[in-house]
UniProtKB/TrEMBL annotation:
GO terms for cellular component: outer membrane-bounded periplasmic space. The keyword Transcription does not apply. The lineage of its organism: Bacteria, Pseudomonadati, Pseudomonadota, Gammaproteobacteria, Oceanospirillales. It comes from Vreelandella sulfidaeris. Residues 1-23 form the signal peptide. PANTHER family: DICARBOXYLATE-BINDING PERIPLASMIC PROTEIN, PTHR33376. This is C4-dicarboxylate ABC transporter substrate-binding protein. GO terms for biological process: transmembrane transport.
Length: 331
């Protein structure tokens, strides 16, 4: 533990020295404004990550790189944002892993149900060689993967009944992200899985055309889902990363020293968001309870895990050697 603490301190000092040197390097750089978009509100972890990133980048480039944040899907849903990054109409964003996996299929390996036993286990894989390899693969589709923030462990909510085991999900209309792993996971659990964009899901819950959804506690809290959802199950069925991602058209216009600052800032902002999420979760759960939501924090996890075995059989080989490598790294 002491070795880790010393190495972390040394890294912090070296980054500070690099950053100090960088500020002077930007004297001759033409100012650049980058539009960073996300689809959630200003109380959400994505916005916390984005604002920390903005602060770090503007400080370290002496204001030469200006970050403008567009929250609340003002520039489009996540697929639209990624497509915009590819062609240069959007510069960058904090994007949930699920939609990113529609562009690089192997990214979806992280979202196999019950893969990661804890946030720390996920961070070790994401911040290590496997995670970096997958970020690098985004360049094949004209995107630059920068760092893994998080959406977090996802949990089930619904408006109809308490859910303790897969049998309780039978027939419930559950919104899932537009990603086949999520769709198949919830179909195996017995739900009527309905893929749709988050902005549409909010309206569908209010209108009662879907019964529920699955998301981390911070999303359930920040979007006041207790107003339409009476029940939550702390299923923690999937750990969902989120990605600081940039379009190659925007990335390629930056000088190398600015690229280095952006990569450093993205990693630090991601780690900041993870820490804030962890600190806030217990308070958010209590607030949801106080608002009247019934929360099951001890569902039948063995039954849930057994029910999703076919998802591993279907997708395991699709991700090449990534799944066995992750499982080995988690041992």
């Amino acid at each position: 533990m002491k070795i880790f603490a010393r190495s972390t301190l040394a890294l912090g000092i070296s980054l500070a020295l690099v950053s100090a040197a960088n500020a002077a390097d930007f004297a001759d750089m033409d100012p650049v404004t980058l539009r960073l978009a996300h689809v959630v509100n200003e109380q959400d972890g994505f916005h916390i990550a984005a604002t920390k990133f903005e602060e770090l980048v503007e400080e370290r480039t002496d204001g030469k790189v200006d970050i403008e944040i567009y929250p609340n899907a003002t520039l489009g849903d996540e697929r639209t944002l990624l497509e915009g990054m590819q062609i240069g109409t959007v510069d960058m964003g904090v994007i949930t892993n699920g939609p990113v996996a529609n562009f690089v299929e192997e990214m979806a390996v992280f979202e196999l149900p019950f893969l990661f036993p804890s946030p720390e286990a996920a961070y070790e894989v994401l911040d290590g060689p496997i995670g970096q390899e997958l970020l690098d693969k985004l360049s094949e589709v004209n995107l630059k993967g920068m760092a893994y923030a998080e959406r977090g462990f996802r949990n089930l909510t619904n408006s109809e009944r308490a859910v303790n085991s897969p049998e309780d999900l039978d027939g419930l209309r559950i919104r899932v992200m537009e990603n086949p792993v999520y769709t198949d996971t919830f179909r195996e659990l017995g739900a009527n899985a309905i893929p749709m964009a988050w902005t549409e899901a909010l309206t569908a819950m209010q209108q009662g055309t879907i019964d529920g959804q699955e998301n981390p506690v911070n999303v359930i809290h920040s979007f006041n889902l207790d107003e339409t959802q009476n029940y939550m199950t702390l299923s923690r069925h999937t750990y969902a990363p989120a990605i600081f991602v940039m379009g190659m058209p925007a990335w390629n216009q930056l000088p190398e020293q600015a690229q280095e600052v952006l990569l450093e800032a993205a990693q630090e902002a991601a780690e900041h968001e993870r820490q804030v999420n962890a600190e806030m979760e217990s308070e958010q759960l209590q607030a949801l309870r106080d608002a009247g939501m019934e929360i099951n924090d001890d569902p039948d996890m063995e039954a849930f895990q057994a029910a999703v075995a076919p998802v591993y059989e279907k997708y395991g080989e699709q991700f090449g050697d990534y799944l066995p490598r992750i499982q080995e790294a988690l041992k």
